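call fold target=Sigma-54-dependent Fis family transcriptional regulator
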Amino acid sequence: MSAPLRAGNGRLPAVLVVDDELRSREALQRTLEEDFAVFTADGAETAQAVLEREAPLGGVQIVLCDQRMPGTTGVEFLKGVRERWPDSVRIILSGYTEAEDIIAGINEAGIYQYLLKPWQPEQLLLTLKNAWNISRLQQENQRLSLELRAAEPVLKRRVEMKYERVKREFGVDGLVRAPHSPLNAVVALIGKVAPFDLSVLISGESGTGKEMVARAIHYGSRRAGRAFVVENCGALPDQLLEAELFGYKRGAFTGAYEDRIGLFQQADGGTIFLDEIGETSPAFQVKLLRVLQEGEFRPLGGARPVSVDVRVIAATNRDLEAEVREGRFREDLYYRLATVPLHVPPLRERTMDIPLLAERLLEASKRALGKDCDGFTGEAAACIAAYRWPGNVRELQNEILRMLALTDGPRLGAELLSPRVLRTPVGETQAADLSLLAGLDGGLKERMEQLEAQVVKEALIRHRWNKSKAAAELGLSRVGLRNKLERYGLERK
């Protein structure tokens, strides 16, 4: 007969039929040859030779063997096949008389199935097709297992590297600050309280980066490898907020078509950050207090409470102590949340951080917009540093995104800034700079001149070096302004 097609790559799987009776071999071959590449052998010795010959060419996937053969039994032969070619699927054919002998040797020979004579063609084909599918699945599983074992060190290292990057970005190293920034005191406190499962209440104006501080606490704790979940409590009414945090059962309310796991359950083992906690109602505060006290809650429509292990970090832009005195916030909940109170200073109180923060936000903006630039011009940087940023970090971030979107040049110039940033009132700038007057060099006259030079320069930058407008703002004539520019060396280069 011609050489059968090899198994694999869409070709037929190979079957070896071992039977000492010629008519039986021919009948089996006719039944199988449409769906399989069939090899035949009249005994154990011939079958052994076929297996040896075919092994380098892809091997034989299925061995179909008669039990009664000269010199050995089918079970004994298949035991040897299992030792040398363990990936093959072994099937035994026999009459009724040897059933007990075969059953006794099935486990030892690793026989997939035992078929009785006389066999039916449909049953035989179905058995061999199932055997081939199982063989392919086993081989695929073995291949994947080997690949996973080989890739495990690489994958583990990649996960570790990604985790380290996340910790650098969202840990305390991600809180941008200058060497003498007031934020350093916050970072020091984070380092002390993060490792312990204490509730933290973060206060500060909107946009100061309270969520970043909460993430730094999470990534400095033993929960760093688990979930960090965020919910803005001021954005939802009570019922929706309760459904978001505690989850619900199907049918709990109109539109609840399926069960939903709440954020507290999603954060189990990790941290949940509740922003704008001061916006919640007294009724909801009672339910939140139970979670903090008992470590359990009941989903909407649920019959049984759910226990969770969650660290709670809350934030507010309100004075919660005043809210407690006015009766708008529960005193017992306040003390549960404020085990460690932490205040984030506004950007106007840490002006030394603004240049560093602007550079970091610019890098993030370039990634977000997919647009590159070489940084800020000196004028733009001076305007950014002079502005008080009442919207804090969020306002600064939006301003930089706007500048990057509008620019056509290699650097972000002052002309791209919003009018409110360019037109910072001089009195406001002077009020902040007067606090620095004592730290300037020289006597009183020299210090006043340094401050005057700074005020003149900022006025020019705000008016894009339009000397007429700068002179009008400063109450000087153009000649007077020109004299000061020459005196202080402030001519634009």
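return ok
The two ends are 93 Å apart (CA to CA). The first strand starts at residue 14 and ends at 18.
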